[in-house]
Design goal:
Alpha-Beta Plaits; 4 strands; 2 domains; about 35% helix; alpha+beta
Length: about 150
């Protein structure tokens, strides 16, 4: 086996529980809810050795997205102001919009792709997508690409 790293995007539901617990420990530490590694691993039921073994190898998707260009895709209902609401959510997250493309509406629906730079984002990408999903008229959303 060579030393070259290979990165995968895997649904956490299929991974051993230790990996999700490492992420929970990191969140507790970064949010200040736990002051020490010992406090955090105790809170989630993980050994210190397991945390230290995987801490530099396991990251949530949003953390690996910092400082990157992300392309978002939406199918939206065709009514006035919906694109503005999406853009406002992106602006609230302090992401920088690079491009916006919108198709002509067909049968009351339009496709929108927005590329953003995540360098200055103050919100996790996952949380941004959740907040956009709450906008009335969003029919579908997904992350198309990461550069």
């Amino acid at each position: 086996m060579d030393n070259k790293s290979t990165y995968l995007l895997v649904d956490s539901a299929v991974l051993p529980e230790v990996f999700t617990k490492v992420i929970e420990v990191k969140k507790l530490l970064s949010s200040g809810k736990a002051r020490t590694v010992n406090d955090a691993v105790s809170a989630v039921g993980l050994s210190r050795s397991a945390f230290y073994k995987y801490r530099d190898r396991v990251f949530p998707f949003y953390e690996t997205s910092r400082g990157r260009v992300i392309t978002l895709y939406f199918t939206v209902e065709d009514f006035s102001g919906i694109l503005s609401r999406i853009i406002n959510k992106i602006a609230q997250a302090k992401a920088n919009i690079i491009t916006i493309n919108q198709s002509m509406p067909i049968n009351g629906l339009a496709d929108v792709t927005i590329s953003i730079s995540t360098t200055g984002m103050t919100m996790e990408l996952e949380k941004l997508m959740e907040s956009i999903a709450e906008i009335e008229g969003i029919r579908k959303q997904q992350i198309l690409a990461r550069d």
